[in-house]
Amino acid sequence: MSAVLDPHDAHAHDDHHDHHAPAGWRRWVFATNHKDIGTLYLLFAFTMLMVGGVLALLIRAELFQPGLQLVNPGLFNQLTTMHGLIMVFGAIMPAFVGFANWMIPLQIGAGDMAFARMNNFSFWLMIPAALMLVSSFFMPGGAPAAGWTLYAPLTLQMGPSMDAGIFAMHILGASSIMGSINIIVTILNMRAPGMTLMKMPMFCWTWLITAYLLIAVMPVLAGAITMTLTDRHFGTSFFNPAGGGDPVMYQHIFWFFGHPEVYIMILPAFGIVSQVVPAFARKKLFGYASMVYATGSIAILSFVVWAHHMFTTGMPVTGQLFFMYSTMLIAVPTGVKIFNWIATMWKGSMTFETPMLWAVGFIFVFTIGGFTGLILSVAPIDINFQDTYYVVAHFHYVLVAGSLFAMFAGIYYWLPKWTGVMYSETRGKIHFWWSMISFNVTFFPMHFLGLAGMPRRYADYPMQFADFNAIASVGGFFFGFAQVYFFIAVIIPAMRGKGAKAVQKPWEGAEGLEWEVPSPAPFHTFETPPKLDITATKVIG
């Protein structure tokens, strides 16, 4: 959407710059402004990324060579469990909610999110939940050690930290549901006059669909962990075979949540890449409508593929065939997206500033992860690869190279709008190449470990797996330090306002309402909603 603001509007923005903006700690504790809450979410998510990253590096340090080096097998299982929970629920999901809070009102021309106080509440709920998760290491018996999937019957045998973990998941789920309601109401009710749904930026579309997914599946997770809780303390036998329960039923309930959850973590990433690629190709997004429909198709299909995580539980061949074919089918709309991004770049006036590097890097590595997922969808193959490092490699290619790389594309793309200063392009490129190389050094060898039969979640392994594990561990440490470099060299200077002053529209090919407000975006934007010309998609003042 090309947009030109009336000069009177520009003056209106200057007049209202930081108008009524609270100062000091009250600005953050009682924040109701969508930008401040977005910033809080992003900083919280980065903190949790570092905590989860430290756990990952402890895992890789232990696996650097065969034998037990640093931790015993029990603590090793606690590390793998908490690494997964913290990264999924503490880092990836809150980070995308931070992006949504910052960008959705700016992109649709809304003054703020629909429910400002609920927005504040949904953020602050996450702090006690995060503290409970992290402090579980110090409880009697240590942290939960049932894997991030929290399978019964292991969960029925854990110490009190399991209850803390369940409580934390409930709180994080409530936060997600409130955030989703806020996003849906904001997008459906607060778009600028003239902005129809099919003129919305792709990022808003992907988040609208993601929010519906969250509202549909978070209660399912809540049900599964509540049944676990009653099995543990109130004498029920949902998952306890001794009382007539079925541990496999837990897996069905969990994965009915868990597979849409995977798309909850990747759809906003698709939205970010769909904003960045057209900006640096200097072309409109190829096949906008097909991108919208593909996103919707992925969301619907994600509800009928859950048992592809369960091919080894003894399901009948008919069930295996259904889940195998439905899983293969979900590759089609994903392929549509990748085709459209490449078609957008085709014959475009491409430049490779840092956001574009991350976006192209995302497309490359996410495609690898997508292909390994297609391989795992074939039931006879999956039965052999089940619970091996091939699965670990696959989902890290999808989630680290997927969600995280797209987040970095979005951060570099919108950072000038957030902070009012340009980051150092050299430092951004160092961060990209350092991360890209070390990521592949870490996770590509895991495909070979899995093909050779190395099981995951084991603290020790036979000698034949030593070389690839040593390579993966070294790569892991380099990847972790790359993110510390990013924070010190890119984020801190930007937050302190150090760097060249950003112009209103720092990227030549960028389009959308967010580029019609000054950099940094003023505390109050769009007090008078911009009116869009429906035919020309221009702001007419």
From TrEMBL:
UniProt keyword annotations, A-Z: Cell membrane, Copper, Electron transport, Heme, Iron, Membrane, Metal-binding, Respiratory chain, Translocase, Transmembrane, Transmembrane helix, Transport
Entries under PANTHER family matching the protein: CYTOCHROME C OXIDASE SUBUNIT 1
Region (Disordered): 1-20
Protein name (record): Cytochrome c oxidase subunit 1
Keyword Phosphoprotein: no
Residues annotated as transmembrane: 40-61, 81-102, 123-146, 166-190, 202-229, 249-273, 285-309, 321-343, 355-375, 395-415, 431-450, 470-492
Record's bilayer topology term: Multi-pass membrane protein
Localization per record: Cell membrane; Membrane
This enzyme's EC code(s): 7.1.1.9
Biological process according to GO: electron transport coupled proton transport; oxidative phosphorylation; respiratory electron transport chain
Catalytic activity, as annotated: 4 Fe(II)-[cytochrome c] + O2 + 8 H(+)(in) = 4 Fe(III)-[cytochrome c] + 2 H2O + 4 H(+)(out)
Organism annotation: Hydrogenophaga crassostreae
Pathway: Energy metabolism; oxidative phosphorylation
